[in-house]
Amino acid sequence: MRIGMLTGGGDCPGLNAVIRAAVRKGVLHYGDEFVGFMEGWRGVLDDRTMPLDLTTTSGILHRGGTILRSSRTNVKKIEGGFERCLAVLQAHQLDALIAMGGDDTQSISVELVKRGVPCIGVPKTIDNDLSGTDVCFGFDTAVTIATEAVDRLHSTTEAHSRVQVVEVMGRDAGWIAITAGIAGGADVILVPEKPIDMDDLVRLLRARWESGKRFAVVVVAEGAKLPEHTGQISAGTKLDSFGHVRLSGVGQVLAEEIEKRTGYETRSVNLGHTQRGGAPTAFDRMLATRYGVAAIDLVHAGRFGRLVVLKGTAITDIPLEEAIAATRTVGEDLMDVMRGLQPKG
Ligand code: F6P
Questions:
Q1: From atom 2 of ligand 1, which residue's Cα is the shortest distance away?
Q2: Which among 36, 88, 212, 341 is placed 20 to 30 Å from 160, CA to CA?
Q3: Which atom of ligand 1 is closest in space to residue 102's alpha carbon?
C-alpha cells in the first residue's frame, strides 16, 4: 500500500518514534511505501513531501521534535482547502493517510474521512487531553521535565525562604500540573478545572510556614483561572488558526498576588516550551512505538476513520469523532489525591 504520514499541531517528544515504528512495520511486514507530508496539513495543501523509508527513519527513535516538522494549519479556514488536499492526496495515489496530532489536527482528519479519505489518527499531545485514550504520547516526557524542574526549584526556594510559582503547559486541562505537582511534592497545585481560590491558597501557605517549613512550591497550569480576571491569562490577544489564544503569564500574576497577600517573597518561572523539547522518555518511546505499529495494522485491516488509543494496558481504537468530541480534563480521583496530601480546610 502507499501510505501518507504527517505530524500536526504543537510538536511533542515521541513523534519520530511513531514515524519509525509505522515505517518499519509497513516496509518489513507488508511491503508498504510511504510519503511524508511536511509541516502537518500545510504540506498536504502545498504538496511538500519527503521520502519515508528505512533509511530516512533510521536513528530517530530517541530524537525529540519531528522529522516531518509541524504547523497549526486549519484547512477549514482556507478557501478551497479540502479540494486542494483531495487533489494532492489523489495525485500521490495514497491508500491511507496517518495523521499524528491532537484535537485540532484530528478535526481535519474527520472532515477528510467524510470526503472519502482513508485516515487513521494517532493521539499526540503533551496536554493529555484527548478523549477516549488514557494517555497521549509526549505527556510522560513533559511531566518528567516539569517534575525535574519542581525538584530542582525546591532547594533554591528553601535556601531563600520563598514561595516559588512554577507555570506549566496543558491548555484547558491540568494533567501536567497535577501529575508533576504530585510527583514533585508541590505544596499547592492549581488547575484549570477549578477556579483559583486565593483564600484557600493563602491558608495552605500560612499552614506551611506555621509548620516550620518556611518555603513553598506552587505549580500552576497555564490555563488556571484567577479570581478578578475574566478568563485565562494570555500573551496577547492573537488567535491561532484554530481559535486558541497563547496561554502564558498566570504564574507571574499569581506570584505578585501571593506576595501582596502573605508578605512572603515570591518568584515565578514559566517552563514553557522546555516541556516539549528533547528526547522522549522510555515510556513515551514505547507508547509511540505501539501506536505506530497499531496504526499500520489498522490500515491493513481497512479500518479507517479510527484513532489508536491506550485503554488500561491495551492498545485499541475508537472513532476519530469520539476523540475530538470533548476535552478530557482532570477528574475528582486525582484531585482527591492532591487534597489528601494537604492540610484540611
Ligand atoms: O497543545 C500543546 C501546547 O504545548 C499547549 O500546552 C500550549 O498551550 C500550546 O501548545 C503552545 O503552543 P505554541 O507552541 O504554538 O506556542
A1: 10
A2: 341
A3: 1
The response to whether residue 225 sits with its C-beta less than 6 Å from ligand 1 reads no
Residue 34, Cα to own-chain centre: how many angstroms? 26
Q: Which residue, 90, 120, 12, 5, is CA-closest to 51?
A: 5
Spatial contact of 291 and 73, defined as CB atoms under 8 Å apart = no
The per-residue pLDDT for 82 is 98
For ligand 1, mutation pick of 11, 74, 128, 276 (most atoms within 8 Å of CB):
276
Q: Are strands 306-311 and 119-123 parallel, antiparallel or unpaired?
A: parallel
Q: Is the pTM of this model over 0.85?
A: yes
169 lines ligand 1 (CB under 6 A): yes
pLDDT of residue 229 exceeding 90, the answer is no
Q: In what order do the strands lie in the sheet with 216-221?
A: 188-190, 216-221, 163-168, 266-270
Tens-digit pLDDT profile for residues 100-117:
999 999 999 999 999 999
pLDDT in tens, 138-155: 999 999 999 999 999 999
